[in-house]
Design a protein that fits this description.
This protein is α/β, with parallel strands linked by helices and 201 residues long. The protein has 7 helices and 8 strands; from the N terminus they run βαβαβαββαβαβαβα. The chain has an 8-stranded parallel sheet, sandwiched between helices.
Length: 201
């Protein structure tokens, strides 16, 4: 795919997903964060640190923390993939200006699947129900990896809020909260990625 390339999600496109040879980290976060907010600054720093460490990133491709992480990664020369869902979000104008490769997904579940299929790790930043859904799917995928004797991808959640949510869920239903790594800030999140995957530069 070329810079600002765009492709629809098709069975043939799954081959492209599997062919990506650079480790990519999925960055999940709020769509309503605006430039200047602390969460926007954190997301931009997260993207930049990942790119500087040699990782590409994949996000939901739109605004807010997705834009901020894309901006940070692109500014550091990193690969930036955005997975959008225009049929679900027709009011959104398209991928943010920092996305180099846009993948169009037909549904929200398929959008999450594509991001996690591409990613070798995930970082969940501050967010709402959309980010929660992404974190829950990443958590579940990592949890069930044991049943096929595969090594789970690192699942990292930033901030005490996600730790409270995950811990509460694990206290109420049979679930292993230990699959998720909780960190205080994006610097620690990128350190956790490198600890799990190794630096790429």
């Amino acid at each position: 795919m070329t810079r600002r390339g765009r492709a629809d999600c098709t069975p043939e496109f799954n081959g492209y997903i599997r062919s990506v040879n650079q480790p990519i980290v999925a960055v999940f976060g709020a769509s309503r964060t605006v430039q200047g907010d602390a969460d926007y600054v954190d997301a931009e720093r997260c993207g930049r640190l990942l790119a500087e460490a040699g990782y590409g990133i994949v996000t939901g491709g739109y605004g807010g923390s997705m834009e901020a992480a894309s901006k940070g990664a692109a500014g550091a020369g990193g690969r930036v993939v955005g997975v959008t869902a225009p049929s679900v979000f027709p009011q959104r104008p398209g991928a943010n200006a920092f996305v180099g490769e846009e993948i169009v997904a037909p549904t929200v579940p398929e959008r999450i699947r594509i991001m996690l299929d591409m990613a070798t790790a995930s970082i969940s930043l501050a967010g709402s129900i959309g980010t929660l859904t992404e974190l829950m799917v990443a958590w579940n995928v990592a949890y069930i990896a044991r049943f096929s004797s595969t090594i789970p991808n690192p699942v990292i959640a930033v901030g005490a809020g996600w730790q409270s949510v995950v811990t509460e869920i694990a206290n109420r239903i049979p679930a292993d909260a230990g699959v998720v790594s909780f960190v205080d800030d994006v610097d620690a999140a990128v350190d956790a990625v490198q600890s799990g995957l190794g630096p790429q530069r």
